[in-house]
Amino acid sequence: MDDHPRELLAFYALDAVSESERRQVEAYLAENPEALAELKALRAAAHQLPLSIEPATPPAAVAAGLMARIRADHRDTAGAVADRPEPRLPGRRPAFRRSWWTRFRQGPALPAVAGLALLAALLLPIWIVSLQARVRDLTAENDALRQQLLTQQETVAVLTGFDSRVITINGTEARPQARGELVVEAGAGRAVLVVTDLAPLPGDQTYQLWLIQGDSPVSAGTFQVDAQGRGLFPVTGAPLPSFDAVGVSIEPAGGSAAPTGDIVLLGG
Amino acid sequence: MNEPEPGDEQLMARITTRDEQALAELYRRHAPVVMGLARRILGDQALAEEVTQETFWRAWNRADTYRPASGAVGGWLYGIARNLAIDRLRRGRRRPVAVDLPGEDRAAGDLVDPAADVPEIARRARQASLVRRALQALPPEQLAVIELAYFQGLTRREIAESESLPLGTVHTRARLALLKLRELLRPEDSES
């Protein structure tokens, strides 16, 4: 019979079976231990297959990104971040963002990192390298600096999250050239907003991000863009409320309780 | 003679206690094979880098799920890497060009690790060459099934359909291929 579990042993050894096939084979093996000897031989061969390939040293950024994620994760579990109250202080403009953009402008040409959110991919590689440098330089117990570094690490973690979901948001008639992506981390509910081609606003106005469920928008904070119209905004206050659409509107400085101004980006 | 280095299993035990140095050492030992495997499957450097990072991220978070009885740490890691790579491949982000084994998988721009352990690299290169020769010694129809199942992530039914074969034949060829490979590589088993 084509589908008798014994027939599937080779594919099982290759780890090339579906979940239900796997369970069938394992049930079969439990009842028929004499088949284990054959499985062992098949597996020994299958395990050689990855070794048939010339190893390839990954670039340093891979390890750097990995360690950045681990450290961001460490601080989370230490409770340093998780217990922060929702700090959506209207009009807050953390200093690190300005200096981070400075580094970005001075950086070398950025390689595309396929598979990441397109916009985030443009911004990420320089950030990872500079993040590593800052971790090394961090000596004093400077709370503000640690907070900034922490937020950068969180952002890296979300942007590099393999299972992170990317929601594309497009410019509306009010700003047709604007583009954005909301990168949402699987599970933990953290998110990062990346926008381009969104013009800087005068001082009495701000952009505000909304997470919309049905007809109800919930504010996810206000943010600014740089002179080139780019913005990278970690959405704080995890976990995120559930939503089926995302919008950005122009609001008076300090933000509003509900969208009042033009909606410039919308998606979902 | 230096102090004996910790074995992979010791590293895994340390990783369960959130020992970053242990993960860094595991990465140093196995990332090149993981990277090579991911690149072989995906045919794309950037995607392979992502898979490599994600593999070790999962190793960090799921170290407690590793069971020595199931096999070597390396095999566990390569299994994670392969599953991630095949998932990505099947989601249609990339279609690789079919590679005829033995392939020259080293890209022109590959990095040379200045901290590299030259005897280790030489050993790995010899191993790779041995396994590739053994694969080449397989009858081509058996090798094809291995290539499709392992490196391209096709299911047995997809293979049967694409090769116009009965399902039973696909199973038999896979089995014969692995048994033959085992026989050819038997003296090298100390690697596993």
Can you offer a commentary on this structure?
By secondary structure, chain A is an alpha+beta fold. Chain A has an eight-stranded antiparallel beta sheet, covered by helices on one side. In chain A, helix 4 crosses helix 6, helix 4 packs across helix 7 and helix 6 runs antiparallel to helix 7. Chain A is elongated and about 75 Å long. About 15% of the residues of chain A have low confidence. Chain B is mostly helical and 192 residues long. About 9% of the residues of chain B have low confidence. Classes of the chains: A alpha+beta (268), B mainly alpha (192).
SSE diagram, text form:
The complex is a heterodimer of chains A (268) and B (192).
Chain A: H1 9-13, H2 19-31, H3 35-46, H4 60-77, H5 95-106, H6 118-137, H7 143-160, E1 165-171, E2 179-184, E3 191-196, E4 205-213, E5 216-223, E6 231-235, E7 245-252, E8 263-267
Antiparallel strand pairs in A: 1-2, 1-8, 2-3, 3-6, 4-5, 4-7, 7-8
Helix pairs in contact in A: 4-6, 4-7, 6-7
Chain B: H1 8-15, H2 20-42, H3 45-61, H4 73-90, H5 118-136, H6 140-151, H7 156-162, H8 167-185
**Low-pLDDT runs of chain B:** 93-109
Q: What is the structural class of chain A?
A: alpha+beta
Order of helices and strands of chain B: HHHHHHHH
Determine the structural class of chain B based on helices, strands and strand pairing: mainly alpha
Tell me which oligomeric state these chains represent. Answer: heterodimer
Helix content of chain B: 55-70%
Mean pLDDT of chain A: 73
The number of E-state strands of chain B comes to 0
How far apart the termini of chain B lie comes to 25 Å
Strand content of chain B: under 5%
| Largest β sheet strand count, sense and barrel closure of chain B | none
* Strand portion of chain A: 15-25%
Mean pLDDT score of chain B: 84
Count of DSSP E strands of chain A? 8
* Helix share bin of chain A: 25-40%
Runs of chain A with pLDDT <50, length 5+?
79-119
Count of helix runs of chain B: 8
Cα Rg of chain A: 24 Å
Order of helix and strand elements from N to C terminus of chain A: HHHHHHHEEEEEEEE
